[in-house]
Specification:
The complex is a heterodimer of chains A (about 325) and B (about 725).
Chain A (H helix, E strand, L loop, with lengths): L4 E4 L3 H8 L4 E4 L5 H6 L7 E4 L8 E3 L3 E5 L4 H5 L2 H6 L1 H8 L4 H6 L2 H6 L50 H7 L3 E6 L2 E6 L22 E8 L2 H4 L2 E5 L10 E10 L2 E10 L9 H5 L8 H12 L10 H14 L5 H8 L4
Parallel strand pairs in A: 1-3, 2-3
Antiparallel strand pairs in A: 4-5, 5-8, 6-7, 6-8, 9-10, 10-11
Helix pairs in contact in A: 5-8, 11-12
Chain B lengths: L13 H5 L15 E7 L5 E7 L1 H4 L4 E6 L3 H5 L17 H5 L16 E2 L5 E7 L2 H10 L1 E6 L18 E2 L2 E2 L1 E4 L10 E9 L11 E7 L2 E6 L4 H12 L6 E4 L15 H13 L3 E4 L2 H7 L6 E9 L5 E13 L10 H5 L3 E13 L12 H18 L4 H7 L11 E2 L4 H12 L12 E2 L2 E13 L4 E9 L4 E5 L8 H13 L6 E5 L15 H27 L9 H7 L4 E9 L7 E2 L1 E13 L4 E12 L6 H20 L30 E6 L23 H13 L10 H5 L3
Parallel strand pairs in B: 1-14, 12-13, 16-17, 18-25, 22-23, 27-28
Antiparallel strand pairs in B: 1-5, 2-4, 2-6, 3-5, 7-8, 9-17, 10-15, 11-12, 11-14, 15-16, 19-20, 20-26, 21-22, 21-24, 26-27
The chains are: A alpha+beta (about 325), B alpha+beta (about 725).
Amino acid sequence: MRAFDYIRAETLEQALLELGCPDSRALAGGTSLVDLMKLGVEAPARLVDIGSLPLAAITLGQSALSIGALASNSEIASNETVERLFPAVSQAILAGASGQIRNMASLAGNLMQRTRCPYFRSTDWPCNKRQPGSGCTAASGSNAHHAVLGVSASCMAVNPSDLAVALLALDAEVHLVGPSGPRSVPISQFYLLPAETPEIETVLRPGELITQVVLPRSNLAAASTYLKLRGRASYEFASASIASAILVEGGAVREVAIALGGLGVVPWRDRTAEAELIGKAIGRQSIERYCDALLAAASPTKDNAYKLDLARGAIHRCLDPDRARDDVTARGSSPE
Amino acid sequence: MPKHLGEPRSRIEGALKVTGRAAYAADRRLPNQAYVWAVRSPIAAGRIMRVAVAEAEAVDGVIAIYTHCNAAEALDWGPENASWNLSAEALGRTALAEAEPTAQPLYQPLTGSEIVFAGQWIALVVAETLEAAREAALLVTAEFVEDPASTELDKDSDRFLSPTFFFGADMHVQRSGLESSRPDQAAIRETYVTPVQFHHPMETSATVADWQDDGVTVFDSTQGVWAAREFIARSLKVPTEKVRVVSSYVGGGFGAKNQMWPHQALAAHISRALRRPIRIQLSRADMVVASGHRSVTHQDVDLRAGGDGRLNGLSHVSWVPTSIRGNFFEPCGLNSLMLYETADLDVRHYVTRKNIPSPTVFRGPGETPGSFALECALDELAHRMQMDPIALRRRNFASRDAYHARDWSANRLEDCYEQGSAAFGWEHGFTPPRSMRSKSELIGFGMATTAYPAPALAATVRLRLRQDGPLVIETSATDIGTGMYTILAQTVADALGWPLEDLVVRLASSDFPNAPTAGRSKSTASVLPAAANACRALLDRLQAMDRTHSIAPNSNRSPFEILAAAGSSELVVEGSSTGMPTGQNLSFYSFGAHFAEVRVDEELGRIRVTRFVSALDCGTIVNPKTAASQIKGGIIFGIGMALMEKGEFHPVRGRLVNDNLADYAVPVHADIPDIKVVFVNGADERFNEFGARGLGEIGLPGAAAAIANAVFNATGKRVRNLPITPADIVRRA
């Protein structure tokens, strides 16, 4: 690991000032950044520890819930309001990592975590995300865990966050502050497709910090669930996951929100495909049509095409009222 | 005095381990100790043209960097070294000698510019701290001329060698039975593939070497201290007695620490060159390239049976790789030679050289991948014949070891079928696939046979009785998590009527008397008889002393009183065992039957093992608690093999992709169901005085087959290529 300067920021203003210096990175829980520094993938000259800034509050307002950027994953997952009004958020967090990691990891850190692509995480593989222009090793094979949606010739690395998938389904707003003041971005616009520049992953500008994430309250959000599929029962990133909520009235879909993880280079949601479900009866056929529309843009390889079938299975299981719903909800809080 | 043998006793060193006080090799912190980090080749074949180390040398704290350019001179490290015949690279060489009359030099890192596999060590950085070594290693750059590399086995186009004799068996056996004219009513002819697997013990391999004056003390994570001493001494070209190897605790081995690997010698060479203690601990990524792995296997199994299920023919042909400059290969056909009665038998192996790191022994080498193929094929045959898989196996029960033409010393396999199926609730008869379901899950039952040889080698145990302390037991045997500390104490406590808590067991120093390297489930049967003989020697000596120094012999004086009367402060005795019993023409094997229940959610591609029962005949069980732990560990390995583990070489770059525990999945706690282990009672009295056989491996062979057979029973999908993944289950096309 390259030697680095360590600065503890006491105030938000100081943090922003320090982060303005070149080659500086914000440190919160460190579960992702320090790991990558040990691997030699990240080598910042300066670490600005923002851990003691007052940004950890979880506050329920009239119309929305605000979660501070430094709230720990464990705090969010076990927060009674989150469990009641935004169950998919709690379930998504508990479906990921381990108890120890969730205790350390922050909300903002979860959103900013880097991909688990093995070619990115080891310094001597070619990787356009780690070393722009060096090439994509996954493109030439061994890519069973890579993305099928949003991929480009330069990158097919999956965004690993479970939490971001839930937040995407629940229309979260990401609040930022930087040298030029505060702004907010819908989470649907927070992540960037890799295209030709996979090294640029979010709209976060240099020197900017996430301050909070705001979740609008709704009946749909309160009905949300998260289902994660993976090879082993715990402690593994998703092969496919789904955060979903559906409200049916008089046999027809009134509202629906579906976001997918494990499939895309970014957390994935297709509102056009969702809109086709509105007003229709929910059942095998309408769900299959939704899946066809959602996955039409997929570009699978021979190794990762199974993810399309996993996604279809998960979507049916979560949306189809005829299927055993308790299979999903009963497992939401289990290690599965 | 309570009896200890046969009783479930907790590990006597358990508290030290769980409180962090047990010092493993890498825990040693010697004054002035330096640390090593390896630089690996990113290419799989070719030649190093240049290694640039200047930038790395400039890193603060870097002491030395060794490459093939300077290691010979700086470290006296050379390919002419006779020690390399003792290295992991040499295992299997005699089996391949006939096929390759001119043997290639064995792989030895830092001795030349040739690259034969990706991950090969091309430089070692020595620094004051691990962090500095690791940082500098990132700055070492190399230029290569790359040659085409081949890592994937290809039955059609690879050049294959025919090995001769390996693991005590001919690798090419073709026998035609007298009854082969019996008509075939059913036949199975399929190919089974088992994956590249990594041992990944919790403790990565480590060596701390401390050269002083003209000798070296080596704290090592080896499974065999005497073997390590010989290897290191020969490599250093010093007399054996100048090397001391200590391996007090080993955090799992599974074969990764059974053979001799470069770091063990290199640490000693560097310590001698730099005159300071050196620690080399393999990183997780180093483990897969520098301590062996289980190779991929392709196995063609051909079974032919008459209408009653009796086998007319059993053919098991294995296609396996070894490395370019190593020799180990998986002898998959071992169990097929002896486990079932068949008229015709055809067991062959073919080996090809690939640009892969050298494979090595791995828990149940041969039997583990071989049993997957054999036991799945039997399940397929049973299904084809609509027979109970147990009935088919019973029909083909081998009443004697036909391959070796010997009777079994004891064989309670039929009891294993019976007691195991009772404990599991096995429904006898033919159960068609997809006949059990609960909500969205299909349920399947599967079973398989396991068998494993029971070897023993000569060993010696020393006892030290002192006036002022506990009775000390010393032997160079290692405890690799198996329970050796505890069963030795149990043995001595019972033989001498000594309180267990007043015994001290010291293991795994080369100063202690010889015992075999832990491996192939032989330690119990080798070491315990030696301990028993040492106890008898102690009692004889005490009796003799009592007669000599007492007015009234045969009094009830304690050993301490006898020692005091003799004016002696310490009495040291040794006892030895002789290995396999002689004068009996018998085959010594352990047997067992595995039973698995799986639940499969086809829509979600989810496969979970929900119950597992194993019934085993391992002779007398010395310690039911540590024995059951061994078996459960083997079954957990089987769950990983069946459903998760697969080392993957990049198809273009020939490099292992998932050389870490994030990308190489092994079971976590949530994957492990209730496991019930049933030991079928019965001593193997003709094996040793305890009637006990080792059992470190028998839990694993057959376990993956039982699971795969259960997945078939649940879904009707026969997956012959492990691991069985969500992709196999969910695929719609």
